[in-house]
Design brief:
Elements: E1 6-15, E2 25-32, E3 35-43, H1 53-59, H2 63-69, H3 73-88, E4 93-98, H4 101-116, E5 126-127, H5 128-136, H6 145-152, H7 162-181
Parallel strand pairs: 1-4, 4-5
Antiparallel strand pairs: 1-2, 2-3
Helix pairs in contact: 3-4, 5-7, 6-7
Length: about 180
């Protein structure tokens, strides 16, 4: 059996609060890590009126506006799944990559299973913070993206817009891979 080629997909979400189900995923941004111009982005209708005011303030998003302008979650997740399948192809394996992947993956996984009964990424995600710790020997406290940026010097900047942040995270991931792939000596 031929080994599947891994296609790394950087994903960022903005939400109305800390946990899926009780709070809503409001935006999804994604890009192919190695071809960051291959992108997906959408806004979603909220699934509840629960919202942490701080979460909304950070993103500048409005539940009321998204109720009118956002996609129904089933449509959004179907479009996202189609995009993943198109970018990855049938013979390859999609790998979910996130900065603080447990948070983003929990929302994406919940929405995929609630609305489509499947998740193209399976039940795992690759966390950039953990990869950075392993590559650099840093402590957990130094895995904030601002701390990583001091060492890695990315060109992009995060701005709490899901697509921009997914592209920023993809750049961080590529820079960390360069550290890992450098010959020692």
């Amino acid at each position: 059996m031929r080994k599947k080629h891994e296609v790394y997909i950087s994903i960022d979400v903005e939400t109305s609060g800390p946990i899926p189900g009780e709070y809503s995923m409001l935006t999804i941004g994604a890009c192919n890590v190695d071809e960051p111009d291959q992108v997906f982005s959408c806004n979603l209708k909220p699934i509840s009126t629960n919202a942490d005011p701080e979460a909304l303030a950070v993103t500048g998003l409005s539940l009321e506006a998204l109720e009118h302008e956002g996609l129904h979650p089933e449509v959004a997740m179907s479009q996202f799944q189609s995009w993943v399948e198109k970018v990855v192809g049938k013979e390859n394996l999609p790998v979910f990559v996130g900065l603080n992947a447990p948070f983003d993956w929990s929302f994406v996984n919940y929405y995929f299973h609630r609305y489509l009964q499947t998740n193209p990424f399976g039940f795992t995600a690759l966390d950039i913070k953990s990869l950075y710790m392993g590559a650099t020997g840093s402590e957990w406290v130094n895995t904030r993206s601002s701390q990583m940026a001091v060492r890695l010097q990315p060109k992009l900047k995060p701005d709490h817009q899901a697509l921009h942040d997914a592209q920023y995270q993809a750049e961080l991931f590529r820079l960390i891979r360069e550290i890992i792939q450098r010959p020692e000596g």
